[in-house]
Amino acid sequence: MKRTLLLACLSVLLVASIITRPDEAFQASLQGLTVWWNIVFPGLLPFLTLLELMLAFGVVHALGTLLHPIMQKLFRLPGEAGIALALGWTGGFPCGAEAAAALRKRDALTVKQGNRLLALSHMPNPLFMLLVVGTGFLHRPELGAAITIVVWLAALLPVLVVARMTKLEAAPAEARSSASLFRKAARAMREARERDGRSFGKLLGDAVTVAVYKLMAIGGFMIFCAVLVKLLEPLMPGSIPAFVLPGLVESHIGAYAASAAAFTGGLPWKAAAIAAVLSWGGLSALLQAGAAISGTGLTLRSLAAARLLHSATAFVLMLTCWKPITVMMSGLSPAAATFAWRYEETGPGPSGVIRASDLHSLWPYAPLLLLVFICTMTLLVCVSAATAKLKLR
Q1: Is the pLDDT of residue 339 over 60?
Q2: How many whole angstroms separate alpha carbon 336 and alpha carbon 136?
Q3: Which of 94-103, 162-171, 199-208, 274-283 has the least mean pLDDT?
Q4: Mean pLDDT, residues 213-224 taken together
Q5: Residue 291: is it exposed, middle or buried by C-beta count within 10 angstroms (0-12/13-18/19+)?
Q6: Which residues cross the membrane (predicted)?
Q7: Which residues contact 40 (CB under 8 A, 6 or more apart)?
Q8: Which residues constitute the domain of residue 63?
Q9: 288, part of any domain
Q10: ∠ CA(102), CA(127), CA(266), 5° rounding?
Q11: What is the pLDDT of residue 316?
């Protein structure tokens, strides 16, 4: 009851704040809408639609069989987890959470496995880090690559450590049999397709409808959080850096604010702050994941703890490995410039206010993201098949 009353009071205060400051609320809404349309919608629509199609056609079941050896060995997770991992790492928030929730609803994961997979697959969009942050915000493509590598490494290290402390479950008799891995995958795919039974037209319509519905909900979360940041700004003490509040609430706006902030430690600290903000994901990403995992038994509490650990690890890792990473990434500048759009060298706008020109659309890069996903899945399948052959020998 107390929680309900508290939430009701906060809702009334939020509405009152919007009424008393309509201009600021409207501009913040436009800011959230700009981020959603230019970055999130094109980044997620292909993957959310593809996930629905893969589930219905049995591709998830087939790939789960193919990926079981490597996922079990590395992460102590079933093979289907590899699909959530690839979708989350290429599609961004909350694509990984959607995939993990779908697997949990099919009972392909236990609650513990689902929470570990959720922590590993709930990741920021790589093109946002590479192109928007590196090229658009910082005007340094190699820094975007460095931030991406650090965010990925910071996600992998804790999960690998936890996996090593998790007891390896015995493989089912079917997985230990000498039958061809690809033959078992084909059988799993056929059985799943027969269970679904929808025609291609019906399936495609349902997939697009579900994907757009989810994207609308995600857009609502982002606009709400953008307005919340704007309304809370006057309450923040002056001693707290300006990027902290947007970084805690919405990672895209937080990364922009961090790139506009001045750091006494210079560029390494700026890059570390951006990596920490992106790894945390913000309240917006947590709410998006919460909507995805509703009714699955997975908890936001464990995800929030994992995101905090991920953020702290990314911050420390960036500062610790700054010199070797930047030296390694400096060679990528000419190649990265090939994909970079042209910006005026004015830097981010004042007070961390996002400009539409700084969030160049990712629509042209949607096919590239799909290609990266396909290549990632192909690589994982090849490595997994090689691992299975070694085990049989």
Answers
A1: no
A2: 12
A3: 162-171
A4: 91
A5: middle
A6: 44-67, 117-137, 143-163, 203-229, 271-293, 305-325, 365-388
A7: 92, 93, 125, 215, 218, 219, 222, 252
A8: 28-163+181-392
A9: yes
A10: 120
A11: 96
Tally of CB atoms within 10 A around 213: 11
Minimal CA–CA distance to 76: which of 167, 153, 156? Answer: 167
> Identity (one letter) of the amino acid at 124?
P
Which range has highest mean pLDDT (40-44, 197-201, 317-321)?
317-321
Of residues 4 and 377, more confidently modeled:
377
The reply to whether 369 falls in a domain is yes
Q: What are phi and psi of 242, to 5 degrees?
A: -65, -25
